[in-house]
Amino acid sequence: MISDSNKSDPLDFNPAPPQARREHVPIWLLVVMFLMLYWGMVYFDQHSGWFKPEVYSPYHDLAEVEVWQPVTGAPSLAQQGKAVYNKPTCVACHQPDGNGVPGQNPPLTGSEWVNEAAPGRVIRIALNGLNGPINVKGQSFNGTMVPWKDVLSDEEIAAVLTYIRQNKEWGNNAPEVKPEQVKAVRDKIKDRSAPFTPDELQKTPPTD
Amino acid sequence: MNFGPIIFLVAFFGLCCSWLGLVLTPQIQIGRLQQTNTIPAGVVYPVQRPGLARQGLAVYRANGCQYCHSQQVGQTGTICDVVLTDAGTNETSTLVALRKVRPSFSEAQDRQLLAGLPKTIREGITKEAADAAVKVINASGAKATAWIVPVGPDIAEHWGARRTVAEDFLFDYPVLPGTQRVGPDLANVGMRLPDANWQLRHLYAPRSVVKDSLMPPYRFLFEKRRIGRSPSPDAVNLPPELAPEPGYEIVPNPEGSALVAYLLSLRASEPLFDAPLSVAEATTASTNAPAQATTSTNAPAK
Amino acid sequence: MPRGLAEVSEIDLSCRLPLLVLFISAAKWLVIGWIFELIGSLKFHNPGFLADYSWLTYGRVHPAFTNAVVYGFCVQAGLGVMLWLFAQMGGVALANRWLVTVGAIIWNLGVTVGIIGILAGDSTGFEHLEMPGYASILVFIGYLAIAIWAAVTLHERRRRELTASHWFLFTALFWFPWIYSTANLLLVSFPVRGVAQAVIAWWYSQNLLVTWLGLLGLGTLFYFIPKLSGRDLHNHYLALFAYWILVMVAGWGGIPASAPVPAWMPAISAVASVLSVLGAIAVGLNVCHTLGCSLRPVRGLPQLSFLVFSGCAFVLAGVMRAASALLVTEQTLRLTWFGPAVQLLDYYGFFAMAGFGAIYVILPRLLGVSFPWPKLVRVHFWVSAIGVLLVVVPFAICGAIEEARLDAAQPFVTIMRSSMVFLRISTMGDLLILLGHVLFLANLTGAVVGFYRLRARTAYSVLTADLFKPAGARP
């Protein structure tokens, strides 16, 4: 066998299991272990959010995450309405600037239909759609608007109508629309599935 | 104690513990995650990446991009700014409120402030202080909001507006948050560098767009071909010293196009309940896919 | 030059064939793997180096390197040492050595297919699990073929006592198939959704590199250090304490702090990493006291030097991991060059060095011949030790500097540029390590060749002795 030294070869050992002294584990090591376990519990308590899946570092618990939510109180209806508008719901036809397409889709900017004080008519249009010739800002449009009552909820319709009616850039300044108002109209016309015509709407008072 | 199966049982117990803790529990908590809503706009997030971007993820994986690039933005804290959005109708009461909120500024400076709104009037304060300031300003007739700003070294490097969370990787396979940062973090590269031509040029010749870059050129993702009747719209716009000879153009092959589509789809800065953040306006659906007309609610996802 | 064939015990004889296959293949994979690492390392100095070949891009060459070293070398060396230890400590021949050899061949086939798959672009993407599914099934079958007979050998042992080494090695036997099958099922075959994939991948990485290699390496250390130094193991129960810490706590580490997962996962990992330092302390104490708190037993025995270096590396790796979990800047410390530094210390500085020491002891006993170039064993030690330090220390310092600069929000490109000097030093370290591996492979193959040559010569002389007996010598 090889040997780097002249003494008896340490590599030529008896392969039986090595002898081992069986003393107890040093007490100080166990003390350190318990101290570390204590530190571990404190660290976990502070940094873990106690297994809640919504808590990510640097937040320490769910309450802290809720404190840091960006809007204090309910988000404004107009803000949400813009998001609803820009889903390809209204924006596709009425365009991002609200001016519609000349000859095809009526504009929402400064429109007298939009700016009525009471929202009854616009709610009906949004719910059931519109069919037939309509006069907006002196121009005539003769198209079809799809109904949104099955796609958008009351809150969403209220939000998008509020956004449109209160959009100062578009020259609109009308009161907001509340979800309860949308719900009231929806209940009134729940038996009707066909789109409205402008003539019918003219006959219905906006406060209805 | 010479009974072999005891060792087996101890080992099994030890493995079970870590398996229960780090395999089963995460699967229950985040393995069944669904889409969530952004706050406050309530738009569904995330949406599935478009098909070409998903193929690009396969190219990303095959070429091992995750060994040099991470996709995890960290965050060490959150601070609040107060932004004045509307001066209100009564200027004197607004100015009084402003003095209360920022006493270290002079009245002349406050007046100047009112000229070009919206402006930040307090920076880097706690949420309670910001809410108190907003209350004072709103009571005077003007309008202010508390602006939530995540902070951290990764955010300071402009790698993202907020930390990455589990929802950002919901539909990806494989999820590759990366092992090392030899190159910058890519979680938001689609927002930071949305130009397809920049990405292509960077892949073809990294040192031509980033001086002293350590990234190797990925020429095998491109092919050089003869220009047909007119130059291809996909052709990479290269500087003269790298451009091929006249009559030839460099276009990405399908893998190259897919990889670039994937990189451009990387955005992870929507404000979520888990990672709150203020954004400038109510956002549309995250633009890594066409927006879908799904119903959404106003309530924060819980 | 090798002297005559020495007497080989029956147990060693039974282990010879499978262990030769395992050890020589392991040495070969180490050389191949480190060539991949060198290619990757050179790309940092000249990004255009071999850049036009898609199969040699850094993102493919780097996982080829890690998989070749971990699966090609570490697992095979570890299994070989485990088989030998079970047979020798139990006093019984290795059970069914032919099937074990077949298992080793299948394992090698699987790793070859896997590495080719990675270079071809079929990598799964998950760190340390990059071998594609079609290769991992081969690897798994090879492992089972070896592991079952290791368990049988242990079961049939004549000496019934179970030492601390038994605890470590027998646990390691089961640990690998459990974590490997779990990871492959949940990540490759029936992938879980979303970022749970990353969590399971991190869990697997940690269990493979820290727990499993730790179990195998410590089992080796706690046998060979007492044997080679001729002294008793200092404290059996301290060794078991390290075992408990490794099995119960170390498997929970591995989730980095900036991971896109809820806060409790990085928190648990941080606590686990800090608690694991207790295991490192226990091992350090044991090794130190076994040697009598001096380096004198090491003199003249490079095999023991390997093992002592390995013990020190284990302690250092544990401390580094705990320190990086405690510092607030662990936010990104793991994502800098500090991460690869600790990993290299784990699978190379600790495990591979222990493997070298053990193989240098076992192989001559298996064959009954000595190494053709015995002085190269010592050269290999110094070359490997210096090489490892030249890689780990610059990487760790570079990582710390990078982290400090990122905290100061310096532009990323300048941070990377300033890391170049450390990368240059590490490439030199890589070259040294590769040299060490070449010496290792040369010594091993030289010993095997010498063995077969001697055996042929002996057989020839026995044969011809009968033919050429002088006339009249027959009774």
Structure description:
The complex is a heterotrimer of chains A (208), B (302) and C (475). Chain A has 208 residues and is mostly helical. Chain A has helices at residues 27-47, 62-67, 77-86, 91-94, 120-128, 154-165, 179-188, 198-203; strands spanning 130-136, 139-145. Helices cover 38% and strands 7% of the residues of chain A. Mean pLDDT of chain A is 83; it is low at 1-7. In chain B, α2 crosses α10. The longest helix of chain B is centred in the first third of the chain and has 27 residues, at 4-30. The termini of chain B are far apart. By secondary structure, chain C is mostly helical. Helix content of chain C is 76%, strand content 0%. Chain C is built from 15 helices and no strands. In chain C, α2 packs parallel to α4. The mean pLDDT of chain C is 91. The chains are: A mainly alpha (208), B alpha+beta (302), C mainly alpha (475). Chains in contact: A-B, A-C, B-C. Chains B and C meet through α1 and α6 of B and α2, α5, α6 and α14 of C.
Q: List SSEs of chain A in N-to-C order.
A: HHHHHEEHHH
**In terms of structural class, how would the helical and strand content of chain C be classed?**
mainly alpha
Q: Roughly how much helix do the residues of chain C carry, as a percent range?
A: over 70%
Mean pLDDT value of chain C: 91
CATH architecture assignment name of chain C: Up-down Bundle
Name the chain pair with the biggest interface and residue counts per chain.
B-C, 77 and 82 residues
Reported for the largest beta sheet of chain C, the result is: none
Radius of gyration of chain A: 36 Å
Largest sheet, spatial ordering of strands of chain A: 1-2
> What is the β-strand count of chain A?
2
Distance between the termini of chain A: 107 Å
- Ends distance of chain C: 38 Å
Strand content of chain C: under 5%
Helix and strand topology:
The complex is a heterotrimer of chains A (208), B (302) and C (475).
Chain A: H1 27-47, H2 62-67, H3 77-86, H4 91-94, H5 120-128, E1 130-136, E2 139-145, H6 154-165, H7 179-188, H8 198-203
Antiparallel strand pairs in A: 1-2
Chain B: H1 4-30, E1 36-37, E2 44-45, H2 51-62, E3 77-86, H3 91-101, H4 107-115, E4 119-125, H5 127-139, E5 143-151, H6 153-156, H7 189-192, H8 196-204, H9 206-209, E6 222-226, E7 248-252, H10 254-264
Antiparallel strand pairs in B: 1-2, 3-4, 3-5, 6-7
Helix pairs in contact in B: 2-10, 3-5, 8-10
Chain C: H1 10-45, H2 58-90, H3 97-120, H4 133-155, H5 164-189, H6 196-229, H7 236-248, H8 264-275, H9 277-290, H10 302-326, H11 330-333, H12 338-367, H13 375-407, H14 412-418, H15 420-467
